[in-house]
Amino acid sequence: MTATGAASLWLAGCGGGDGAGAPGAQARSVARELIAPRLLTVGKQQIAVYESGGSGPAVMLIHGNSSSAKIWQQTLGGELGRKYRLVAIDLPGHGASSDAAPEDRTAVYSIPGYAAVIRGVASQLSIENGVFVGWSLGGHAVMEASTQLGEAAGFMVFGAPPLPFPPAPDFGGAFLSASPLAFQKDLTLEEAREFVSTFLSPGAAVPDFLVDDALRTDGNARATVVTVPFSDEIVITSNMRQPFAILQGAREQIVNLAYLEKLAPSLPTLSQDHVELVADAGHALQWEQPARFDAQLDAFVTAVQAKPSTVVPSGEAAPS
Question: Does domain 3-161+171-306 have CATH number 3.40.50.1820?
Answer without folding.
Answer: yes
